[in-house]
Design goal:
The chain is of the alpha+beta class. The protein has helices at about 5-10, 55-75, 125-135; strands at about 20, 25-30, 40-45, 80-85, 100-105. The protein has three helices and five strands, in the order αβββαββα. The structure holds adenosine monophosphate and zinc ion (ZN).
Length: about 140
């Protein structure tokens, strides 16, 4: 945990452009933004991901994102925003201190966050079944 870059930002060992803070979370500018004005929201306590974090802390993060995202949009002259969390290496997580991306979107930014793909015949139900089995809601 002491090697955690975001913990270092929290204690001031690494500089960051902090744009919001409260007792549970801070938000700062992403140094490699997907769009101009991209901000990260992190909890003050170290949790590695969405699985690790207690529900109350995750709730606080989304509340912060809800509070600041529309202000960010206004401040930078954007038209909308995406909120996202990359969970695990396959999903693109690089920093293992849970963080929520708030990414302003501009009408003509041409950013493709993800593109949809199709299912073969019957496959959507097959995947639905797999998930329902694990969620135990059949
Ligand atoms: P993720 O891929 O979801 O783990 O995102 C990590 C994010 O942290 C990336 O968007 C990086 O650009 C950002 N990042 C890494 N180091 C710093 C830093 N020192 N200050 C601000 N943002 C950072
Ligand atoms: Zn950390």
């Amino acid at each position: 945990m002491n090697d955690c870059i975001f913990c270092k930002i929290l204690v001031g060992d690494i500089p960051a452009e902090i744009v919001y803070e409260d007792k549970d979370a801070i938000a700062f500018m992403d140094i490699s933004p997907v769009t101009k004005g991209h901000v990260l929201v992190i909890p003050r306590e170290h949790y590695k991901d969405v699985i690790d974090v207690p529900e109350e802390i995750l709730q606080k993060m989304i509340v912060v994102a809800k509070k600041i995202a529309p202000k960010i949009v206004e401040a930078v002259g954007a038209d909308g925003f995406n909120i996202g969390i990359n969970n695990g290496k396959a999903a693109g997580q690089v920093v293992y201190h849970l963080h929520m991306h708030v990414m302003p979107r501009y009408e003509y930014d041409n950013l493709k966050m993800w593109e949809g793909d199709g299912y073969q015949e019957g496959e959507i139900k097959e995947y639905g079944d797999k998930i329902r089995n694990y969620l135990d809601i059949n």
